[in-house]
């Protein structure tokens, strides 16, 4: 009797499988493949069926979330040494820090896809696109790091992004509030400052890093906008006032206090209101 092939896992199940992969390159390939699989589907009905928004996916007992390599060693944020980008080692350490953020960002996007059932199909499509773009960012940074004689894992790193992911694992509204539109939005503020330092370094390696950061900043505006849009959607669905609820969530989950200077132009492009920008200055 012929064996009946098992049905292909939903895209959300496959996102969990990708999240569990420890090898960075395998995770990058998996993130790209998920996005390409979605794009290849013929219409919205097929995409919704493949995404399976209503599917409740159990937390795997036999896997560690997220999958990550043995290196880099994870240390508290204050234990990550600050080095001058005017030295070759310092430039590599700076690139490594951003590379680690992008690796975590792949995981954060994949986690949003698999973890939260019952959202519109466009929610999962948005976060699969984010995972694909974050994988591209990681690949660009890792390739540049390798051109300098280093690789991802060569320097210690901290785990702040994923720790907030764990804190908000049972509350999708808190996740949207405190990961994309808080922690990841800090990149909108920090990136131009990093680029200014790298331009002062002025070496070909530093200027190549500036170009990569241009790509990342452009895409991150869109990623933060996705977080803003879904946070607003969730607040409206629950009858919550977005700014006051954000203050509540930031307190409950001890979100880091954001400090100026703020990139108002990028934040506005990402959907922050003037009231939210004013709150940042008064918080």
Keywords:
globular; 66% helix; mainly alpha; Ferritin; 283 residues; single chain
What is the count of helical runs?
Answer: 12
Using the coordinates shown, work out and report the CATH topology.
Ferritin
Radius of gyration: 19 Å
The structure class reads mainly alpha
- The CATH fourth-level homologous superfamily: Ferritin, core subunit, four-helix bundle
N- and C-termini, Cα separation = 68 Å
Helix content: 55-70%
Main pleated-sheet profile: none
CATH architecture: Up-down Bundle
Structure report:
With 283 residues, the chain is mainly alpha-helical. It has one domain: Up-down Bundle (Ferritin). It contains 12 helices and no strands.
Protein topology:
Blueprint: H1 11-20, H2 24-39, H3 44-51, H4 88-115, H5 121-147, H6 160-167, H7 172-183, H8 186-201, H9 204-238, H10 242-252, H11 264-269, H12 274-282
Helix pairs in contact: 1-2, 1-4, 2-5, 4-5, 5-9, 6-7, 7-9, 8-9
